[in-house]
Amino acid sequence: MVMLSIAVEALGLSLGSLLLAIALAMAAYRVAEYFHHPRLATVFLVGAAAAALVSGVGKSDFVKMVCLFAALCAVMLFFAAPDEGAPSKERGARLPTVNKEKP
Fold it and tell me: Which terminus of the chain is less hemmed in, N or C, by CB atoms within 10 Å?
């Protein structure tokens, strides 16, 4: 019975922290998208995780796992978020073309 309670606690801790980290990543992306810079979501996530770890809140195992999962989400968001300097079809930008005329 003790082993079952330990397994349920570990599962709840892992799934709960993962879900909270995903919710934080979605919120950070929405805020960054509002400012038209989606890659800033990574800065928001890493900043929130660092602030939580540095403050007294970071002593909890739940907070430590949320910060770990938030850092992993920040890495994924960095590669998934569109680059604001790159031309995209949504903004109506066109890629440069080379005129190939036959002589």
Answer: C
